[in-house]
Amino acid sequence: xxxxxxxxxxxNRAQSNIMIRAYxxxxxxxxxxxxxxxxTMGGPGSPYSEAMASFSPYTTATNTSLSAxxxxxxxxxxxxxxxxxxxxxxxxxxxxxxxxxLLLVSVVVFLYGRWQRRRIxxxxxxxxxxxxxxxxxxxxxxxxxxxNDGSCAPTAxxxxxxxxxxxxxxxxxxxxxxxxxHSDPEIGEVRRLMVSPDCQRCGVGDKLMDMLDDHAREHGVxxxxxxxxxxxxxxxxFYKKRGWRPKKKRxxxxxxxxxxxxxx
Length: 264
Known about the structure:
Blueprint: E1 4-5, E2 18-22, H1 29-41, H2 47-53, H3 60-75, H4 79-88, H5 92-135, H6 138-141, E3 144-146, E4 152-154, E5 159-165, E6 171-178, E7 187-195, H7 204-218, E8 223-229, H8 233-241, E9 245-252, E10 255-263
Parallel strand pairs: 1-7, 7-8
Antiparallel strand pairs: 2-5, 3-4, 5-6, 6-7, 8-10, 9-10
Helix pairs in contact: 1-5, 2-5, 3-5
Pfam family, one: Acetyltransf_1
Transmembrane segments: 95-115
Organism: Hypsizygus marmoreus (White beech mushroom)
């Protein structure tokens, strides 16, 4: 599943209000998990909402088939229907058969949409359970060590960063770089880039990625890769603007997951 969480913006703040710092305080883990949940499963524009909307049972095809079937069924009971059937050389019952077929199509499309939405709901909940469990161990994932005073420090090239809204003091974004994910030490894996829905389109994602890029270059990383779901359309647009290109696709729980790559 995807490594990136974006949501639709609710307001537009200035970039100057956002500060980026390395993840050094384990107390940030709780707000980061809550932000990830909100950004992934939240309101309109979230990956979950986009995925569910793509398989709405109330589609144009469903409504058109249902309306046409009911209209044709009502028409089949009139004298005009008999005249039309006679002029076409068919039995009046054929009109009823066509109406029944249209109604059947509408039912099938409706049930298919319901089934797909149920499948997507289960897929996202499974993904969220796994992801939130991983975010509970940010220290372990990014090879940090906990010092005597409770703060964290890196032990290797891997690192992660937190964006803070200086006006509210709240966590506005997060991203991590895993330099041990690939066997090739010159490839780094971008993990869990997320931005709070309240801070969308105000440069948080760019600031986080700029910090990550600088760190990667300083530590000998030549290329970056990440994974994101096809449902995460906002994230895909963001990455394309920053020069990321598709490398491959694979299936995960019934949906396509893209691997993107960019040289640094």
